[in-house]
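User: Sequence in, structure out. Go.
Assistant: Echoing your sequence, followed by the structure tokens.
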Amino acid sequence: MPLLVVRHRVKDFAAWKQVFAEHGPKRDGADFSNPRIYRSASDPNEVVILIDAASIEKARAFGSSDETRAQMAKAGVIDQPTVYFLNEAS
């Protein structure tokens, strides 16, 4: 199963997490599952998200949508996200 990995910094983790949770139904609709959130040990406002994706194409479309960008701004993302689309190695 493909994996989406996103890293970015946020103004306030608690505020970001609330918006991330509210956006959950949209992620589900894009066939994402099993979201995992990690915070940097040295910077609690640096967030890394791992999400299983049904397909790379759907993940790319979701990540580049205006709605997703608006949600990230609303959540307080303060830098350019680093995004990886990964396929499982066999």
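User: And one key feature?
Assistant: The radius of gyration is 13 Å.
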